[in-house]
Design a protein that fits this description.
The structure is a single chain. This protein has 707 residues and is of the alpha/beta class. Helix content is 52%, strand content 12%. The chain has 30 helices and 18 strands. The strands form 5 sheets. It has a 4-stranded parallel sheet with strand order 2-1-3-5, with helices on both faces. The radius of gyration is 27 Å and the shape is globular. The structure holds iron/sulfur cluster.
Length: 707
């Protein structure tokens, strides 16, 4: 049996291990050739534009194996070790390849997740090995041999100071890669940090390594420092790792900032989620210690000439400003004693957070600042955010700056613990805000800290340890207000499309929100809800309108925050469309007692069934839900789907690549949310989309929008 292995992404991490495993079980391993322009073009023609360069190249490599092997090996590696997450694209890779390269031979896609423990790894190996033999000891033997080859590969690179390519060539001479150009005498040493599949792929890196050597630059890499040193250095910058290969970026950056390297060049792919946040920490630390730092961004349009010019200029600058090695300093910020207590608490806004929490905060004597998201919030956030980080990061940073400017001494943030960038936000937010000179306390609540007690403890921390009865009363009122606001939302989406007077409808809706906001207790809250739901029911309707039904799916923050989606729901309502959002996007679903009983988990399981076989694992964020909802809404007879995705959002770019491949056909309009998005642009696309849905409904069901 011939097993094809695309020469991209984690090939540079695990090829010796994979080759040893398959060959020990008697298979022949076929590796795709070195990247060519044709492969890159093929990959770019298959994957959506927003996805990163290495994934496009990988799709080109997978295509190049068509007809050359019986299976293509594309494992879904969720996590290489306990407690960290891999980039969502590594997790969703086999599904991306299946969806974008249908000519590809059948994909072997074992799920490898170190967070699930060693047993999971062995189970995955047995399942894979059983394609070759039913002899379990033989499979176990093959796995142990493969794990040994992996250890040998890593030790070899560290011991001999070799790059992965050189080490693979030494271990397997049949994979020797011809390199062009030899170096001139080197007077400066520069560390080159970045993902291996970028640095050592000669085609997409434009032979960066050789060019530096030709410029008389001695280059050093993460592999040469050794894993222990990288891990120790990484902890200089982050309290604990979050991403799978964080050592190779943050660890290597920290290590070489404190080493005798004269400068650092970071290489990242355009649209790379993890690097957009990780490299920000490294670059800020290098700036603090005056270590020359050059940030290179690669994509399929990168021009060789421009890249070479920047390398030459950087090498010249380093030569001219060569500094003595930085000795005995720490990268971590000096320890600062946090003041006790909370005076003014600032939290980032998202849809109905403010009306839900404003009055309850008073019950526990907390002055709360929740700034409305405005153009100013976005421009502040964009000005100080890393390049190509996702929109929610920028908006939340802008909110924090506005909170601090308004007098907040403490900030609060819910951090997620899944494979998307959100779990890394607060690290970088704090770094940027401290560099801007703000002094504040940062309170975080991990969304994985499930259970009502965990939440109440966090609330109590935010309330200067107010008496429990006040904390419980405040929490109860806040969550009841969230439920009331969600009930109002579920009502208004049905009223908007048929309402005769759109302006009046919006006025009543906002009066309702104000009434809920001002309610000081459960009684007045119940009155507000009853009064206004009735008022909405009594609004004059146009009985001739049969609304189109459209589902809104995508990344939670942009789906919820009207400023980020340019008031999409209101605009669709004006066009006679009834919208539906997924259950998990109603905030009260996360704070209701039911959610602590795991209702949302079973909802996720239901979603996973809809998404299978197109997307077979959770890729973090709401990527799985987006694919699942498309299938679900098509089966439920909805007319269309609007897919909202922040520019470069990893889980959603995966969903974008997979959605077109489902057999359930329903029109999908993808709206990219970023600071460039304009209302006019969105309205034009919405009107065209609704037109299409009306014509489609008329032609499919002969049904009119108006009776
Ligand atoms: S987003 Fe970044 S980490 Fe993820 S596959 Fe692309 S380049 Fe690699």
């Amino acid at each position: 049996m011939r097993i094809g292995i695309p020469r991209g992404l984690l090939y540079y991490q695990y090829f010796p291990m994979w080759k040893t495993f398959f060959e020990t079980l008697g298979a022949e391993v076929v590796v795709s050739p070195q990247t060519t322009q044709e492969m890159l073009d093929q990959g770019c023609s298959r994957a959506v534009g927003d996805i990163c360069l290495p994934v496009k190249v990988f799709c080109g490599h997978a295509l190049s194996l068509a007809g050359k092997c019986d299976y293509v090996f594309v494992p879904s590696i969720h996590s290489p070790r306990k407690g960290v997450y891999n980039c969502p694209k590594f997790i969703g890779l086999p599904d991306i390849v299946r969806a974008t390269v249908p000519e590809c031979p059948p994909v072997l896609d074992p799920d490898i997740d170190a967070n699930e423990g060693k047993k999971q790894l062995y189970e995955a190996a047995y399942k894979l090995g059983s394609m070759f033999t039913q002899d379990r000891p033989k499979i176990e033997g093959a796995l142990n041999k493969a794990l040994e080859a992996n250890r040998a590969y890593r030790a070899h690179m560290e011991r001999e100071g070799l790059t992965p390519v050189k080490s693979i060539e030494t271990m397997f001479p049949e994979y020797r890669v011809e390199t062009r150009g030899n170096g001139s005498a080197s007077v400066i040493t520069v560390a080159v940090i970045g993902h291996r599949y970028l640095l050592y792929d000669e085609h997409i890196s434009h032979r960066l390594v050789q060019r530096l050597t030709q410029l008389g630059v001695k280059t050093v890499y993460a592999e040469m420092a050794g894993e222990d040193k990288l891990r120790a250095s990484m902890l200089e910058l982050v309290d604990k790792p979050y991403w799978g290969y964080e050592e190779e970026i943050v660890g290597a950056g920290a290590h070489y900032i404190l080493s005798d390297a004269d400068g650092i060049i970071s290489v990242a792919a355009f649209g790379c989620g993890p690097d957009s946040v990780m490299l920000e920490l490294v670059q800020r630390a290098a700036r603090r210690l005056n270590k020359p730092f050059l940030k290179l961004i690669l994509d399929e349009h990168t021009a060789e000439g421009g890249l070479v010019t920047r390398l030459e200029a950087f090498a010249d600058m380093v030569r001219r400003t060569k500094q003595p090695t930085i000795k005995s300093v720490h990268l971590a910020r000096p320890f600062r004693q946090e003041k006790d207590g909370i005076g003014v608490l600032g939290i980032p806004n998202m849809r109905t957070i403010a009306p839900a929490f404003r009055v309850p905060a008073k019950l526990v004597n907390i002055k709360l600042i929740v700034p409305a998201v405005t153009k100013n919030t976005l421009s502040l956030g964009t000005r100080y955010s890393p390049e190509f980080v996702c929109l929610p990061f920028k908006v939340i940073l802008g909110c924090f700056i506005e909170c601090l400017e308004a007098g907040a001494d403490t900030l609060f943030m819910v951090t997620s613990s899944n494979a998307c960038r959100m779990g890394y936000y607060s690290k970088v937010h704090e770094e940027i805000l401290r560099d801007l000179g703000y002094d504040f306390k940062f309170l975080r609540h991990k969304s994985s800290d499930k259970g009502i007690l965990g939440v109440l403890r966090t609330v109590r921390k935010c309330t200067n340890h107010a008496p429990w009865r006040n904390v419980v009363a405040a929490y109860n009122l806040a969550t009841s207000k969230m439920k009331a606001l969600d009930d109002l939302e579920r009502k208004i989406v049905k009223v908007r499309p048929v309402a005769q007077d759109k302006a009046l409808t919006e006025r009543v809706f906002h009066e309702a929100i104000d009434a809920i906001d001002e309610a000081t207790g459960l009684l007045s809250l119940r009155w507000a809800v009853h009064t206004y739901l009735k008022k909405l029911d009594q609004l004059p309707r146009d009985p001739s309108i049969v609304p189109l039904r459209v589902g809104i799916v995508g990344e939670m923050y942009v789906v919820l925050e009207p400023f980020c989606n340019l008031n999409l729901e209101v605009e669709l309502g004006k066009l006679g469309v009834e919208v539906m959002r997924t259950r998990a996007t109603y905030l009260s679903e996360w704070t209701s007692i039911k959610s602590y009983m795991g209702v949302l988990n079973s909802e996720k399981k239901k979603m996973a069934k809809y998404a299978y076989p197109y997307l077979r694992r959770d890729v973090g964020g709401h990527g799985l839900e987006s694919v699942a909802e498309k299938v679900h809404l098509a089966r439920e007879g909805y007319d269309g789907v609007v897919h909202l995705t922040p520019f470069t959002c990893m889980p959603e770019t995966i969903a974008q690549n997979i959605m077109p491949s489902t057999k359930e056909k329903i029109p999908v309009l993808t709206l990219i949310c970023d600071e460039q998005a304009t209302k006019t642009g969105m309205l034009t696309r919405l009107e065209a989309f609704v037109d299409l849905l009306e014509r489609r409904r008329r032609s499919n069901y002969g049904k009119q929008t108006r009776v």
